[in-house]
Specification:
- With 382 residues, the protein is α/β, with parallel strands linked by helices.
- It has two domains: 200 residues, Rossmann fold (3-Layer(aba) Sandwich); 169 residues, Rossmann fold (3-Layer(aba) Sandwich).
- The strands form two sheets. The chain has a seven-stranded parallel sheet with strand order 3-2-1-4-5-6-7, with helices on both faces. Strands 9-8-10-11-12 form a five-stranded parallel sheet.
- It is globular and about 65 Å long.
- It starts with a helix and ends with a helix.
- 39% of the residues are buried.
- This is CDP-glycerol glycerophosphotransferase family protein.
- Keywords: Transferase.
Length: 382
């Protein structure tokens, strides 16, 4: 079925090849890059149009863009998208992608179309692409489909050479395709007005957090949306009796989050209406594992202690795997037991993040949006 779908994408894109390419298309599956999209729309030369194709889960973000006068269209991988979406995408001079989109593997790529990957994370702890051990177990046809998508990207926008190397290795693409411009979505993390406004809004919405040390527990999304916290985790998280603890798990794990919140007792504070990124702005301590939130948190002025609690590291090394040099650049020791985590929370020591940021956030300096918009708007006149 996947092969047939990609064949249909190929056919439709060939039928619409040769049309005038003046549009800018943004494929949206993460809702945290809206300021960049709006900045891009504001800088487009006359005669060019921005269209955002969004996944249904980003409906609220799309509504915000529509209110700003930007054309938005929902899309899923189905026949309707082949018949109505592909013709519009074939009019693109620039095609921005914030994720892996399978249909790209079948898309005819005109010479004048520039396809740009704007990944949704500033760094990588877990492996992906060819570096994921499970990829080798997939069928030859699956592997061809994966590589066909990876090869479509003309350029990859990254925040540091380290992430460029990860893409080059994981996707088997030339290092020359990497553009160290910084991630636009990271700009707000160094925007004092945005950080302050977010903090004030959180304290108004969740007053129980104000005036306390906030410990945020935000582990990574796991394929299959399965996650079982180890027994005793709640006791470790509440080692500072004056702190308040917020748990942020994948939305599909609401029952697990509720149970962990219950075990935290009065120190646990529920904040389901707030995003993880918002909560990072009030967290004095972030406890995570393989999640990319670590790379965002390290840019914030309130970042005090960043703790890596990898209780399932032996199993995770096997599937999906972690970066081979992980222990070389982590800004602190790996914790695998509740006792180690409890001791670190009690100690409340400052995590030195300078070298970590130099490795992963070198170009994430608060001005990435300006550079990315300037580079690609200039290409519209090539």
């Amino acid at each position: 079925m996947k092969e047939i779908y990609l064949w249909l994408v190929r056919l439709m894109s060939l039928l619409w090849a040769g049309r005038r390419q003046k549009d800018v298309i943004y494929l949206l599956s993460f809702a945290d890059n809206l300021p960049f999209i709006q900045a891009l729309a504001a800088k487009l030369p006359a005669g060019h149009r921005l269209v955002v194709f969004y996944r249904p889960k980003c409906q609220a973000a799309a509504a915000n863009l529509a209110a700003a006068g930007i054309t938005v269209r929902p899309f899923e991988d189905n026949l309707a998208f082949v018949l109505t979406g592909i013709p519009q995408i074939m009019r693109a001079r620039l095609l921005f992608c914030d994720n892996y989109y399978a249909f790209l593997g079948g898309l005819y790529h005109p010479r004048r179309m520039r396809i740009v990957q704007l990944w949704h994370a500033a760094g990588a702890i877990k492996r992906f692409g060819w570096d994921d051990p499970t990829t080798a177990q997939r069928s030859a046809s699956d592997q061809r489909r994966f590589q066909a998508v990876y090869d479509q990207f003309d350029e990859y926008v990254v925040g540091a050479p380290a992430m460029g190397q990860v893409f080059a290795t994981s996707y088997r693409v030339p290092l020359s395709r990497m553009q160290v411009l910084g991630y636009p979505r990271s700009d707000r993390l160094q925007d004092a007005s945005w950080v302050n406004a977010t903090q004030q809004r959180i304290w108004q919405q969740v007053p129980a957090l104000k005036g306390h040390r906030v410990i945020l527990y935000a582990p990574t999304y796991r394929d299959g949306v399965t996650f079982t916290p180890p027994a005793g985790l709640a006791a470790a998280l509440r080692q500072d009796p004056t702190a308040r603890v917020v748990v942020k798990l994948h939305p599909a794990l609401a029952t697990t989050a509720d149970e962990l919140q219950r075990q935290l007792g009065p120190q646990g504070v529920a904040a389901p209406e707030l995003s993880t990124t918002e909560l990072l702005t009030v967290a004095e301590t972030l406890v995570t594992d393989y999640s990319s939130v670590a790379f965002d948190y390290s840019l914030l002025p309130n970042a005090h202690s960043l703790l890596f609690y990898l209780f399932d590291l032996p199993a995770y090394r096997q599937d999906p795997g972690v970066q081979a040099d992980l222990l070389d650049w982590l800004p602190g020791p790996v914790m695998t037991t509740n006792d180690q985590l409890a001791a670190a929370i009690q100690a409340d020591a400052v995590t030195e993040l300078t070298q970590f940021n130099q490795h992963w956030n070198r170009a994430n300096d608060g001005h990435a949006t300006e550079r990315v918009v300037a580079r690609y708007v200039a290409q519209l006149s090539d």
